[in-house]
Queue: 3 jobs
Job 1
Amino acid sequence: MPLLLAALSSQAGAECRYTELAALGISVDERISDTPYLDAQINGKSVHMLIDTGAFKTVLTRAELDRQQVTLTRISEIMSGIGGRAPMFSARPKEVVIGPTRLHQTSFPVVEGFDFPGYGGIIGADYLLQADLEIALADKQLKFFRGAGCDDKSLAYWDAKALDVPLETLSRDGRAIVPVTINGSKLMALIDTGATISLVDQHTAERLGFDPASAGTRKGNKLQGLNGKTRQSWITTFDSFAIGEEQISHPRITVMESVDGDLNARDHQVILGRDFLLAHHVLLSTGQRRFYYSYLGGPVFAASHGTEQP
């Protein structure tokens, strides 16, 4: 799905040119766990679209297209997420507008089971990670960049002391993962603006010493996802968490029940959700394959109730 932004022209010499392609204001829906969204349009009708780096595809919702009486075609693909799986369809609206992108008669995947009033879809990694993506949730802003001659330069223009770690994009779906360490074990974490809180997969947590029956663990809220289905969660204290040079001692992090591989352990075992992203200013540079981050203050993990500091 092209951004349809002005491409950066080729540059001579080694000078780093880091060009801002677009800046988009984020709105937050307090009804749905402070969900970040962009205002978009489907066939001229204004809709909200969830900003979700944890979704590999940009999809429209069946509920909205049914309301607009857009023809749907059933396809064999299934969308997976917390809460299970949802059937997929295909549709070709007359026009869809997302930020600076205006798409005419373009085929979109359509998901069933995500029906919130006013929402028309989910903006996934295929759109968000076509260029370098700066996420400033605290400032309610997304920015897109493209660089030339910047291979050995820090791109964290907002903070000379910003940290960075390697960034990988999954070959099968383009989502972004970064290395983290919990209790001394190296793991991979998905950067997920669609997740309210950060999570550790239950099977992974158990390998790190987690026990649901231990004195330091309590049951958390039910986690709801596709089709309204839920997973059990627990809040527990780990010995340590680190991402690069940022370290947290004794963080309390939410563990999510493992059912049918909700977190694909081959790719990632941890989700860094909006609690982590609200506490950091970050840049996902797909060009450099680096993840830049600056700690802003406050709790890094919602489960810690503000007790941990990096």
Job 2
Amino acid sequence: MTKNLKFTSYSIFNFQLTAKLFVIALVFTSIFACKNNVVAQAVVFEEQVDTTPDPSSFGPNKKNFIHLFVGFGCIVGPAENAGSAIKYGISSDLEIAYRYKRKISNFYAWGTELGYHGSSFILKQDAQKTLPNSTINKNELFKFYNLALGIYNRFNFGRRGNAIGNYVDIGGNAEFPFSIVHIATNDGANGTVVKTLTSHLDYVNKLNYHAFIRFGSNRYALKAAYRFSDLFKSGNAYAELPRFAVTLQVGIHK
């Protein structure tokens, strides 16, 4: 399908009242303690040591944890040949997804991710261009909108308490494009801008898969991904677009 488009009451904290309440509580605690004999004191001590742990199994460093994250980065690495060369720095990568983590031990965890992944490949306009044709445009790009499902192995290191801490993830994901568009922009008559959008591209594969490594510390992570699959179907003469992406991810959690 092708379309042409023209174009703040703060509450005051009463320190004196708090101090009086503290003294009263301390007095009553002291009176209560004096009424107990030595044996009773020992029992109280034993009960405090044998405190029941927090029953919750959800938290950053507990058995289960789930949170939202966003990531933004750049497409890097070479295209297959000059016919599919891109403009680096503005060819971008975007992620918005939920991540689940299952803690196995203090050292190891595994998890899954499910969400949206989008890639924008801004094509270089020169005489060597062949994707999807040799026409030179003012601006031209491919946009991939994907549903992404991933799995990863996490290796933790360092002390962290109930926090995510420092880690390295190694994993992979499968992506199912729900929309792929080619957009070409040119100048039109009388100062107008003509944008041509083409969808339902029959020469693009409907499944892609990647491997990735991710270095993280609490909320932040740096991810490097490599696409093993081809974007374009076999039998087409199109050179493959770059396969690498580097993304900075930010977890949305406490």
Job 3
Amino acid sequence: MSEAAIGVVGGGAWGTALAQAIASGGRAVRLWAREPEVIEGINAQHENALFLPGRPLSEAIVATGDIADLAEAEVVLVVTPAQHMRAVLGQLPARGRPLILCSKGIEAGTHKLLHEVAREVHADSPIAVLSGPTFAHEVAAGLPTAVTLAADDLETAHALAALIGQPTFRPYVSNDTVGAEIGGAVKNVLAIACGVVEGAGLGLNARAAVIARGFAEMTRFGVARGAQAETLGGLSGLGDLVLTCTSTNSRNFSLGVGLGQGKSADELLCDRRTVAEGASTAPVLREAAAAAGVEMPMCNAVNALLEGAALGEVVEGMLSRPIREEHQ
């Protein structure tokens, strides 16, 4: 494999879409996937029929089931569920090459953000975070998309943005990795809340209130963890929040719709091939917020619903909270 190739870890819809966006600019991409049918489909039919059906893929994308094939990649985009990030990174032969983390979540148990996990596993590799309002099928189709690409130093962020950016896939750089990650993690939980509003028929006024008050929770938690408030008001925070809180294309929003219709979390999650990260993030976020002394009632309400609390009781509890000043 050429030194110029770019590696992608994860053959789901998002990993495949990123591979397609990069390959559309003429770069060779080596994509690692677990599923044999995904590997065969990409290499033989140039399609990921399992996770991104109907979208032709560039012949510059070569799929593999051996993660060692990514050893010589110029940079590796890691697109694996948050709770599996540490284990997958442990298998990845990074050898000091840059890693761009493209997943959204907080590690259970440690409450670490994913870039913190990556630094522990690959201390010699420059670590960056890619986040923002992105539906995989639109990115794969080449529709205009803007994202945040954050690294600790702007020079690294600019270099990586130049490497993976395309005219229709536009990275905006930042040195706030904490803010870029927290926006992506918290918005997944809030998207479930907005889905609940939709499923329960609570109205558009309520959805707007959830977005606004949820954004306040995101900002409080982010600043407490060291994020810049401006980052949370950008693509990886407010931008991603608006996208996933207003469309059934969001897995987290769709999960919330089911909860709002009275279905159980177990019922909704048992047959899902794709991951609704908010369901895994909600209990971790509750613990991390409590540890940081941050009040997040909206996110706590989502967690209660996922654990089986009655919808009516949760809604009543939210509406009966004491009146307070808005910007506290």
